[in-house]
Amino acid sequence: GASVLLLRACLALLAWPVYLLSFLGMWEPFCRKVFFPFILEKIGAAHEKKAKKYKQELFRNLPDFRGPSGELRLLEIGTGGGTNFQFYPAGCKVTCTDINPHFQKSLTKSMKKNQHLHYEQFLVAAGEDLHQVPSGSVDAVVCTLVLCSVHSVSSTLREALRVLRPGGVFYFLEHVAAEHSSWRYFWQQVYYPTWKLVFAGCCLTRELWKNLEEAKFSELKIQHISVAMPWMPIEPHIVGYGVK
């Protein structure tokens, strides 16, 4: 515990400009508008290369969840720059949501690359509050690398279940806490406060599989995987889906 606190203090000292800007109320607006969209695009590209094979396998059965009309209505929580669009089947009707409205540039670029989809709307909304979306109105909800930064994981999962029709599916791919006895978990604890501040609330030590197991899915498939990112504490990951 003492070692963690000491190293946290050293890291905070190195990142003192960010802490100062945060104290002055200037970091959060700068982070949301400029830093986070920029850095997420750079890190996201590297992560996407590592995670691509897992996403291809994850979304393979997405067409099986088409509604009675034959259409597939999908809502994505935390769409960001639209990195998942390439994995959705042709004709899929996509509703994009994100709490941060400043991903427009990269999102527009992804939409132009993926014209096999129909984009319904973009909602500025937190995962915990999707009140603009009617209950039981979508066939699939997708949430990747988002549950780490929502204020309430349980509330976000409740909203996902609410907007899904009976028999609909919730897909996820998230980084989670490492094994508690490992060095990786030790460094996750060291990085935790500074990482959360710099990366818009991203929490490194959430045991998200527990939240998913507690949610009221009729069927749940979770796989623990490794998406190794050199010098990055966002490891290990879980991937899978739950059926309402």
UniProtKB/TrEMBL annotation:
One Gene Ontology MF term: S-adenosylmethionine-dependent methyltransferase activity
- Outline the extent of the Methyltransferase type domain: 75-172
Bilayer-crossing residues are none
Q: Which Pfam families match?
A: Methyltransf_11
Q: What InterPro entries is this protein classified in?
A: Methyltransf_11, SAM-dependent_MTases_sf, Thiol_S-MT
* Gene3D superfamilies the record matches: Vaccinia Virus protein VP39
Q: By what name is this protein known?
A: MET7A protein
What organism, scientifically named, is this protein from? Leucopsar rothschildi
Gene label = Mettl7a
